[in-house]
Write a structure and sequence with these properties.
Layout: H1 2-25, H2 34-60, H3 64-85, H4 87-101, H5 105-126, H6 133-144, H7 163-167, H8 170-181, H9 185-212, H10 217-232, H11 241-247, H12 252-308
Pfam families: DUF6077
Keywords: Membrane, Transmembrane, Transmembrane helix
InterPro entries: DUF6077
């Protein structure tokens, strides 16, 4: 049962976003970092779809069980369609990523170990921690088969909806996994989700490094090492971004500031760099005819001198 819970969580939060992201990457040239672009853009797409669907369902009072199964079936159908349509793109992208891993060397392996330690520590020290507000909302929604209709602490029915909870109903997304697999909400938040969100955060940082450093692997490894050091020793405040990532990775703040904003910045930088590269290439092409014309002029002058001589 535990293995099935882990597999479903991995499929829901990792494989499905990766497939959804292929909708954008299939039109772009394949690079060793295409898989990370697929993963992060697909995550943004899945969260956007969740927001668009869940907010009307909350306002209309749709039963939570119907929403969970409906949203899951919708994502499954969309993922199967994109997987069949873009299967060649997936094979090429993952093949290029695997070939690129050979160039990471010992330093890259050391960085992966550091990331693994950061995933392991929060899971180990918080696996037996008690209740928290997010887990309480998940359990209340599953028990009452409603969405944000009952107070998670007292169990009393609410007279109205809070705007912040309706706009950012992230517990309802976690509740889908908890309801379908039967995993405890606290166990889901403290053991499985840190592994997912910390991995996503470092994928966003790797994508940023690739854009800033023009795909140079050594410089990317050094960049990732410094990011690991800043994260591991960034406990200077309870409100620091590094503390949020390691201790409360399941919150909206952590997902937005550690994953979505770095990913968006990397995509914007990529879009800005491409027109510049294209412009510089066009300038170089224009210069070539001018050099050829000057060569032809010089040859004509030489011929004229020979005739006169």
């Amino acid at each position: 049962m535990v293995i099935l819970q882990i597999l479903f969580t991995t499929a829901f939060f990792v494989i499905v976003p990766c497939i959804l992201g292929s909708f954008w990457t299939v039109r772009r040239p394949v690079t060793p970092h295409t898989v990370f672009v697929m993963l992060l853009s697909g995550l943004a797409a899945m969260l956007a779809l969740f927001e668009v669907i869940v907010i009307p369902c909350v306002l209309l009072g749709v039963p939570y069980g119907i929403f969970c199964w409906g949203f899951t079936i919708f994502l499954l159908a969309l993922s199967v369609f994109l997987l069949v349509r873009n299967r060649k793109h997936f094979i090429e992208s993952f093949g290029k990523l695997l070939r690129n891993l050979n160039g990471w060397g010992f330093a890259g392996i050391f960085v992966l170990i550091l990331i693994g330690v950061q995933i392991f520590v929060p899971v180990w020290f918080r696996a037996n921690t008690g209740w928290n507000p997010t887990a309480a909302v998940i359990q209340t929604s599953i028990s009452t088969d409603t969405m944000l209709k009952f107070d998670a602490y007292t169990g009393q029915q609410l007279s109205g909806l809070q705007l912040s909870e309706v706009i950012f109903p992230l517990p309802l997304l976690y509740g889908i996994v908890s309801k379908i697999t039967g995993i405890s909400p606290a166990l889901l938040l403290y053991t499985l989700m840190p592994a997912v969100w910390i991995s996503f955060a470092y994928a966003a940082q790797l994508m940023t490094a690739n854009v800033l450093l023009d795909g140079k692997q050594r410089q990317e490894t050094v960049y990732m090492f410094f990011v690991c050091m800043l994260t591991m020793f960034g406990f200077y405040s309870n409100r620091s971004l590094f503390m949020k990532l390691l201790q409360e990775s399941y919150t909206w703040e952590s997902i937005i500031f550690c994953i979505l904003i770095p990913s968006a910045a990397a995509l914007v930088l990529t879009a800005v760099k491409k027109p510049r590269a294209a412009a510089s290439g066009a300038t170089a092409v224009k210069k070539k005819p001018s050099s050829a014309a000057s060569g032809q002029t010089a040859a004509r002058k030489r011929r004229g001198r020979r005739k006169n001589g």
